[in-house]
Amino acid sequence: MLSAIENRRSIRKFSNKDVPSNIIKDIIESGTKAPSAKNRQPWKFIVVQGDSKQEMISAFEKGFEREITSDDPLLPNSKIHINGTKYSLEIMKNAPVTIFIINTASKGLFANLSNEEKIYEFANTQSISASIENMLIEATHRGLGTLWICDIFFAYKELHNWLNVEGEMVAAISLGYPLETPKQRPRKKIDDVIEWRK
């Protein structure tokens, strides 16, 4: 386990080799073993591959185009990241598998929430994040590469409509056999992120 944590990398180049369904299922099952607030397990996983992949890419491309041409984009202050989003789209085209993670307990990205409901949303997002990390580590353990993608929010409306599922899209993971072995990116020093109170 420690080796998988140490060796996990964000992979952006994938082989076109198919990932067996039983391995994908095992990776997702590792995600379901994550702790969740009040054991709500607020997750659903949608695996996209094969012919459905092109439909997903088309939805993403429509959202990307809307975001860069609209007078009222969803993320108006994030235009500086638009080139990164285009790169993420190319990675998703290349990866043989994309897994969308849905928060099944969400009130909605655009909902007007009470303070208590906001806290539930935060707690559910924490639970889902733990689930995603389990999946990334299990995939690494199995010799697979992953990329945790949040750029999907540039095409949120289009992808969410295409997924046609209750709940809210939280993230996507590109998955496949890696064609690269990148070095670990710089990390903050441990003493810079710990504050001891005794």
The secondary-structure element order is HHEHHEHEHEH
Rounded to the nearest angstrom, the distance between the terminal CA atoms is: 30 Å
Find the count of extended strands (DSSP E, 2+ residues).
4
Q: Beta-strand level of the residues, as a percent range?
A: 5-15%
Tally of helical segments: 7
Uncertain residue segments: none
Q: What does this protein look like?
A:
- The protein is of the alpha+beta class.
- It has helices at residues 2-7, 21-32, 51-69, 82-94, 115-141, 156-163, 190-193; strands at residues 43-48, 97-103, 145-149, 168-176.
- It has a 4-stranded antiparallel beta sheet with strand order 1-2-4-3, with helices on both faces.
- Helix 2 (21-32) crosses helix 5 (115-141), helix 3 (51-69) runs antiparallel to helix 4 (82-94) and helix 3 (51-69) packs antiparallel against helix 6 (156-163).
- The chain is globular and about 50 Å long.
- The two termini are 30 Å apart.
- The mean pLDDT is 95.
Brief synopsis:
The chain is α+β, with helices and mostly antiparallel strands. The protein is 45% helix and 14% strand.
Q: What are the main properties of this structure?
A:
single chain; alpha+beta; globular
Summarize the helices and strands and which ones pair or pack.
Elements: H1 2-7, H2 21-32, E1 43-48, H3 51-69, H4 82-94, E2 97-103, H5 115-141, E3 145-149, H6 156-163, E4 168-176, H7 190-193
Antiparallel strand pairs: 1-2, 2-4, 3-4
Helix pairs in contact: 2-5, 3-4, 3-6
